[in-house]
Write a sequence for this structure.
């Protein structure tokens, strides 16, 4: 076999990821068709629970084809828990999600028409040690640390409950493969067996000195009927292959050892000594590969002054308990949880706030795969593959190593400005959350940060600060505004954009006679103030740009209009060029004093001047519905290949006209 950590940017949340669970997804176009295991497991949803009490539901795919359409919304942040979410469990037959927190709250979520809502709530006030669905998805087994156990239906009805009097705590609870018995593990190494009606059957001591951490079977969590088996890989995923071996009970102890048993009363189990600490284990759905993750024992260095080094490892074992493969991970902290996905071709590892995706090949890795991983490790970035002298077919194959399994477009910290300035290649929606972060009178008005929802956390992408006390006017900047110029976002990027494009923004190019005839706004980024330096543009490549450069000094950015009586003008506040670069300013939002008309003006050198406008209308006595019209031009990277860039009329910024002409994309909301 072969396993390697997926290449690409680091997947990170804003808090520790404590639990994971994955389920397959049925595409909308195939919901009426018979379920095929091959199509079903190419796409799916990864559920995460973190330390902030947020549950993340994130879209994943393993087909490595960028042209495949994705759902319109690829990430959900589900809020409702008041403490850390420690358990997430999918119910694939009924397409539900169960989540548990440290206070004992249990939520069952269901999706309806693209929205997630809470269907059931259970709060007993005691901490939940484990939550497990039966293999047919109709029943739920809930075990609490204080010895209380409960079995209920998927609809919330209680079947039976029992109070187990123990001197130690219950740490885990599972169903047998036939759903006729339930097993509970305790912190003092005991296993308690009860039937499906709550009658006590057995009480067995497995280990005198080690407590039981978890128990599982090498058996699929849910049985998905496959009515078109001919479309699958029959040698790997046929029902006979998956269930030909007898299920093994796997018991993990606090010492790091693992016991493989034919049943709970097996007198000669197979013992696996992993040599790891803080062990978490899980069988693949096929049941022939056991993933064991943990921290290796500290090795004493040759130099006594150096601290002992440890790293997180993932070891793979077969059903006989034989060690097959070891994967060194980049993690230097204990791996908190793991789970399999995508027909056992992916393994998700959570280490603190970081999520690692491991690609797993169950067969012997061929030379082509090994070369692909070796080249991807050497080049480190996908854009460097085009520099290699290889046939196009091999370049495409190597490129698939960089296709991410986690599909939301997480912004690269080294390329944040492109992410927030230009649209993504797909049609997915980016759902964000805005928070008021600070209110410091010394730096101006209150600040607001726009966060992208991702893996149950929030990634800061934009920051806004109010600059007027009378009007709702703001300046938009990068989240990192510590007063220091970042080499990524500062002068080097602006100069590189100017040198490569020979223009400061799209409004400096002669686009059409209509636009020029209206004396389209053209001005240098430093505005017309004599105190500010002007950006010099090299006009050697285009005579049009030369004429444009000559007109910069006498052509204002925005048309100067005499404000009408009682109608204040939407004037733009001038910022010095040094402030724009040092404070990472991107755009400015201005408005009239009533807050009914807004204008968005680009401040960065690589953005066009006119970024959009918002018009808000209400009737005097509210006899007609309110209307909000949004004008947004398409913003693309400046290139000489784009001669006719889409623009819209600057008259949308006028305050004196009620009926504004529509030119370019426009959305009206009532």
């Amino acid at each position: 076999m072969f396993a390697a950590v997926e290449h690409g940017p680091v997947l990170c949340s804003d808090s520790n990821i404590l639990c994971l669970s994955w389920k397959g997804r049925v595409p909308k176009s195939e919901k009426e068709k018979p379920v095929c295991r091959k199509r079903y497991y190419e796409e799916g949803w990864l559920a995460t629970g973190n330390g902030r009490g947020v549950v993340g539901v994130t879209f994943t795919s393993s087909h490595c084809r960028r042209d495949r359409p994705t759902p319109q919304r690829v990430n959900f942040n589900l809020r409702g828990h008041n403490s850390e979410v420690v358990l997430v469990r999918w119910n694939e037959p009924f397409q539900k999600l169960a989540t548990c927190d440290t206070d004992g709250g249990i939520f069952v979520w269901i999706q309806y028409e693209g929205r997630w809502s809470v269907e059931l709530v259970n709060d007993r006030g005691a901490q939940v040690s484990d939550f497990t669905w039966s293999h047919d998805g109709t029943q739920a087994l809930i075990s609490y640390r204080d010895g209380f156990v409960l079995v209920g239906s998927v609809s919330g009805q209680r079947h039976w409950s029992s109070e187990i009097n123990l001197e130690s705590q219950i740490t885990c609870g599972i169903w047998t493969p036939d759903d006729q018995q339930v097993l509970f593990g305790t912190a003092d190494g005991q296993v308690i067996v009860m039937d499906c009606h709550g009658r006590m059957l057995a009480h067995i001591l497995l280990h005198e000195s080690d407590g039981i951490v978890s128990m599982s079977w090498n058996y699929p969590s849910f049985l998905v009927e496959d009515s078109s088996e001919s479309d699958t890989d029959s040698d790997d995923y046929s029902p006979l292959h998956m269930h030909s071996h007898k299920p093994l009970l796997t018991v993990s102890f606090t010492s790091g050892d693992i016991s493989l048993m034919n049943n709970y009363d097996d007198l000669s189990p197979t013992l696996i000594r992993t040599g790891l600490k803080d062990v978490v284990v899980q069988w693949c759905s096929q049941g022939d590969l056991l993933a064991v993750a943990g921290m290796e024992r500290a090795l004493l260095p040759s130099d006594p002054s150096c601290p002992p080094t440890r790293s997180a490892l993932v070891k793979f074992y077969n059903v006989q308990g034989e060690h097959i493969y070891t994967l060194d991970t980049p993690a230097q902290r204990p791996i908190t949880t793991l789970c399999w996905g995508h027909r056992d071709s992916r393994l998700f590892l959570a280490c603190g706030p970081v999520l690692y995706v491991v690609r797993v090949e169950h067969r012997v890795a061929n030379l082509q795969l090994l070369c692909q991983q070796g080249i991807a490790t050497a080049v480190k970035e996908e854009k460097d593959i085009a520099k290699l002298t290889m046939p196009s077919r091999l370049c495409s194959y190597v490129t698939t190593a960089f296709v991410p399994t986690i599909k939301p477009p997480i912004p690269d910290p080294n390329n944040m400005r492109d992410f927030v300035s230009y649209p993504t290649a797909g049609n997915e929606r980016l759902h964000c959350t805005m928070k008021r972060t600070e209110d410091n009178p010394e730096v101006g008005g209150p600040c607001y940060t726009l966060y992208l929802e991702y893996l149950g956390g929030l990634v800061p992408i934009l920051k806004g600060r109010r600059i007027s006390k009378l009007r709702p006017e703001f300046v938009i900047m990068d989240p990192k505004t510590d007063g220091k110029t970042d080499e990524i976002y500062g002068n080097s990027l602006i100069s590189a954009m100017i040198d490569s494009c020979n223009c400061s923004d799209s409004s400096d190019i002669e686009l059409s006679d209509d636009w020029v005839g209206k004396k389209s706004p053209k001005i240098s980024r430093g505005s017309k103030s004599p105190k500010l330096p002007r950006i010099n543009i090299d006009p050697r490549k285009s005579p049009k740009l030369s004429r444009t450069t000559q007109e910069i000094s006498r052509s204002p950015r925005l048309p100067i209009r005499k404000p009408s009586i009682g109608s204040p003008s939407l004037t733009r506040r001038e910022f010095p060029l040094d402030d724009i670069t040092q404070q990472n300013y991107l755009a400015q939002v201005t408005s009239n004093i009533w807050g009914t008309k807004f204008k968005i003006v680009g401040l960065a050198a690589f953005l066009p001047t006119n970024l959009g406008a918002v018009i808000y209308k209400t009737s005097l006595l509210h006899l007609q519905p309110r209307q909000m019209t949004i004008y947004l031009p398409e913003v693309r990277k400046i290139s000489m290949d784009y001669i006719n860039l889409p623009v819209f009329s600057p008259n949308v910024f006028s305050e004196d006209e009620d009926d504004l002409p529509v030119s370019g994309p426009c959305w009206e909301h009532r």
Q: What stands out?
A: The chain is about 10% helix and 35% strand. The longest helix spans residues 367-379.
